[in-house]
Design brief:
Length: 356
Amino acid sequence: MEESGVDTLLVSIGADLPWLTGYEAMPLERLTMLVVPRDGTATLVVPRLEVPRVTERPDVFAIRAWDEHHDPLDVVAELAGPTSVAAVSDRTWALFLIGLLQRMPGTEFRSAGEVLAPLRAVKGPDEVAALRRAAEAVDRIAAALQAGEIPLVGRTEAEVSADLGRRIRAEGHSRVNFAIVAAGENAASPHHEPGPRVIGPDEVVLCDFGGTMPTADGTGYCSDITRCVYTGEPPSEFAELYAVLLHAQQASVASALVGTPCEAVDAVARDHIAAAGHGDQFVHRTGHGIGVEEHEDPYIVAGNSTPLRPGHAFSIEPGIYVTGRWGARLEDIVVATPDGPDALNRADHRLAVVER
């Protein structure tokens, strides 16, 4: 906060709050907000009816409960006091921010991401261990998919998605964040919503899934993996496309060395795919950071010159999408270390052929 010139940090709903306190606030019209002065005691302003859900940590923060007839924004403004610069968490509702603007005239408001995003982006050993446990859990599901143990042909995408979700929970996750199942031409849509389409023989099935694995301190860390299988022998055209994708993904992972700019890691995957004639069919960034949220800093994308630091955790997930025909994506979670990139996902990267 001192380096950023921030006097007071105001953290409401979203991942910043549990990362700092271990408490995840419900997204309610009742305000919960952590008030962190640069000098002084952090105070969690919380509805009285929510106090039983808070694990008290007096060494970290005080609790200020407010009753239904009180205005919690007045409480926040009182705790903040005269403040030149306040940084507000990115997920704070506009309703609350507008109220604070009215109650704290003369205060400059900034995004708390200026302070918190760089801190959250660098994972400590315990955080990397939590990410590894989550990755190993979804690896086991991916291995079952590749071995043909998860029925595909004759089931709808939605049914397979629900199956993946059940397996994610059975592997110890507390929450399913997403379970994309996209068959055939639907695999050309990177964020396809699984629906009633029945999966048939002789087509690609793209599965991108992950959840949140709880940790003892009340935060929880995310998993995220993408693998493709083919329900029959893939045609040579698709096999060649997948070979390009596989090489691009592996080269991009290998390039993720400490000190390398994020945009350079993106360029490795993008240049390889473009050289094979599929440049226009790679329509998204190469990766995103991951931690207590499935998407956070650092982003592996053109224009992000941030150099990788030890502890940065991120996805490497290039894709090739041919509208109306098929698509493929391959994703691992990777941690930058002084000894080189550590890929947390180890499930087979080859295109698995499953029985019809």
